Amino acid sequence: MAVFAADLFATAHVILKKRDTQAAIGWAGMIWFAPGIGPILYYLFGINRVERKAKRLRRRASRIPDTIPLLDGSDTICSVAGHLLPQAQLIGSLTGLPLLGGSAIRPLHTGTEAYTEMLGAIDGAIYSIGLSTYIFDNDAAGKRFIDALGRAVARGVAVRVLIDDIGARYSWPHTVIGPLRRIGVQVARFLPQLLPWHFNYANLRNHRKILIVDGKIGFTGGMNIRAAHDLSLNPVAPISDLHFRLDGPVVAHLRETFADDWEFCTRTVLRGQLWFPKLENCGSVLARGIRTGPDDLCKRLQAVYLGGLASARTSVRIVTPYFLPDAALIAGLNVAALRGVRVYIVLPERNNLRLVQWACMAQLEQLLECGCRVWFTPPPFVHTKLMIVDRTWVLFGSSNWDPRSLRLNFEFDVECYDPTRVGLLDDEVARTVSRSRELTPIKLRRRNLFVKLRDGVARLLTPYL
User: Fold this and answer.
1) CATH topology for the 300-464 domain
2) DSSP assignment of 82-97
3) What is the assigned CATH class of domain 106-282?
4) Could you report the per-residue pLDDT of 82-137, keeping only the tens digit for each?
């Protein structure tokens, strides 16, 4: 009788809480075909405890007052690209955040350039430094950041560093946690795990990359802190990436995200002018931060991508290292291409995750047959994440086009509306395409049977990659 009651209770929870029909059917089947064991497995693996914990913490947290006026960029958008106004309205509804004018955004094209700029900002810090990253290696690049953060602590700067637990252990057993704590840096690990030290497919990770200095200077993008990004260090496996410096009102969205994550991990609230000074206009870019994660009430990142595809009139450029779109995104890409939009997808020739590359290859045919075009970039491995629409709107940050970013990890991106600056980024993508190899339907079909089967099997693992 107790087993029956447990099965019934677990099934009711599945019906009420699981929005994905296939997942609900799968768990319900597990519960009833394995009486007694099914409810235990569902309790252990079927309930998103990160989502529940995040919601509880945020309900308890006092709202951080924001000193930024809520600017409405609708008039400006209409003057430069009126057809993108629905995209701005969509993202505003999804995030609950205003589109802020008056920001300055500058791309940093290499790890050498990005690290030089970031370390310079850290050395110039007077009041506070907030750093959140997925990977922080204890290598030549990491030691430069450790030293700079130590100098800041010695000057009396308040320094907070948040590192994902899996990402911190990429330098196992000599992680950066100990060295940072020894120099007085307050360090927190995001969701400590018992998983192996270098587990590429771990879920529910904090994949965000955010640096805020004195509450006024922000950095975000795709770069972790590791020597592989800095080509001046001659790394064995170099990584090409794109990072961004942000100044002005949009920094409010970076610092609020960092403060929420810090509170999530430490239950300590960051307050006051030390962390939230008044921000002044210093540019002309319209921008907004977009944070996503498994605690979303809706598939926020997927909706942002679909909104961009639906708004496009002439071109869509996508640069990503990991491309495993779900069925809805594949349909969105195909519909855009069939409408006459030039859809370019730029991927690395050799991926650092073989299973992801194989699964990706198995999905590309259904995109090519509808008119999307795919290019593979030569080494070094391109880790850049960009989506550009009509040379006017860009999305950049930590998110990839894969299940991890779409529903399993915590991400942070920024959307910008600016034809001049976005046009320059679009030109950069065009130059990358010019030195890349295009994948045609004929080339894809010429793969031998073994390779097709291998890729097809890998595709079945897509939800777990």
Assistant:
1) Endonuclease; Chain A (3.30.870)
2) GGGHHHHHHHHHHH--
3) alpha beta
4) 889 999 999 999 999 999 999 999 999 999 999 999 999 999 999 999 999 999 99
